[in-house]
Amino acid sequence: MPHLPTLLLCALALLVSPAASPGAPASGLVEVRMETSMGPIVIALDVRHAPITATNFLAYVDEHRLDGTTFYRASPGLRDPRTGFVQGGINHDATRARFAIDHEPTTVTGLHHTDGTISMARNDPGTAAGDFTIMVGDQRYLDAGPGSPGYAAFGHVVGGMDVVRRMLPLPKYPGGYSRETLGQILREPVRIIAVRRVRPPAPSR
Question: Would you give the distance in Å from CA 187 to the centre of its chain?
Fold first, then answer.
């Protein structure tokens, strides 16, 4: 009979594995459709390479915790304002938050912050919950590297990047929540109306 620690480790592995996401296809990608006030965005979540982070996001989707939230931040690049990232989600609303999750660095997942990548927003590693960013252009400085844990990439946009790009130059307040967000908070946040899984078509008979 297996020892209790062995059973506990097996249970934890099931919680973070792709099998924890019902309906995950063999590709390991689960698509979700995000309806926003500027148009739809379709995102493929990589439950195979980033199981903890992608499964956490799917829990927010399935529990409708992202419905009625917003994209509230747009951070244009200093060298090229046409690139950068946008940030959305629960905006630290404790009533919508699930528990914080372990950090999955890009050195472990093999994913990178390239154009269209979705990644978790956080403070310290291990504090990510229900806020996320979407890259506009390559932002590889957000990958993990020597001396930096980076951020946890966990999927990519497969439809609606035009919507994401149109958010980046929207009007912003001169202030911010912190030094890092100065001049990046949207005057009129983009509403996230609903987020749902994209159900694959039933096989033909």
Answer: 22
- Residue 193 and residue 69 in contact, taking contact as beta carbons nearer than 8 Å: no
What are 20-76's pLDDT values in tens digits? 444 556 679 999 999 999 999 999 999 999 999 999 999 999 999 999 999 999 999
- Count Cβ atoms below 10 Å from residue 137 Cβ, excluding itself: 17
The torsion angle over the Cα atoms of residues 114, 53, 59 and 74, rounded to 10 degrees, is: -40
The letter for the amino acid at 107 is T
Confidence (pTM):
0.86
Burial 77-108 (b: 16+ CB within 10 A, else e): eeeeeebbbbbbbbbeeeebeeebbebbbbee
Nearest to 69 by CA among 37, 46, 101: 37
Cα–Cα distance, 117 to 131 (Å, whole number): 14
DSSP per-residue letters across 9-45: HHHHHHHHSGGGSTT--TTSEEEEEEEETTEEEEEEE
